[in-house]
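Tokens for chain A. Residues wanted.
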């Protein structure tokens, strides 16, 4: 199974916190959270790879430091579109199982991602939410040709 992270432009991340944080603080927060998620995924046993769908140069550089495969979109069309495009790119390379993970999952750990992988392996199909309440956005999908996600819609 591969992890797929759809990452929008870092400069516009965490807009919901605009009333409490400056643009620089929001960017720093998202950057820290993204680093934590990528580190946790890189340390997750049983994960076949990490792919990051982004057009942000800083996110690309950070993804490279964690050994992630970079996927690019022409324009930022939102999380669902990024996941769809990322899955299509991975499917073209015969990768048939993906765990979509937001780049800002709070307090993510390798153990929690391993639990998601184990739950998927135990069920062999379907969508599973993570073991920790912070992991509710992680999902696994098999087979990829039977997708019908509508995140945020």
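Reply:
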């Amino acid at each position: 199974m591969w992890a797929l992270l759809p990452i929008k432009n870092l400069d516009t991340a965490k807009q919901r916190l605009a009333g409490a944080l400056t643009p620089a603080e929001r960017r720093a927060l998202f950057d820290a959270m993204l680093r934590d998620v990528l580190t946790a995924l890189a340390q997750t046993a049983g994960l076949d790879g990490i792919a990051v769908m982004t057009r942000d140069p800083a996110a690309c550089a950070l993804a490279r430091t964690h050994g992630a495969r970079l996927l690019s979109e022409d324009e930022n069309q939102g999380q669902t579109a990024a996941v769809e495009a990322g899955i299509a790119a991975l499917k073209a390379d015969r990768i048939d199982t993906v765990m979509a993970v937001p780049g800002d999952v709070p307090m993510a750990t390798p153990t929690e991602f391993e639990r998601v992988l184990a739950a998927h392996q135990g069920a062999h199909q379907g969508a599973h939410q993570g073991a920790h309440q912070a992991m509710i956005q992680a999902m696994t999908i098999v087979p990829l040709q039977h997708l019908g996600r509508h995140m945020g819609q």
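The CA atoms of residues 26 and 138 lie 22 Å apart. The longest helix spans residues 23-42.
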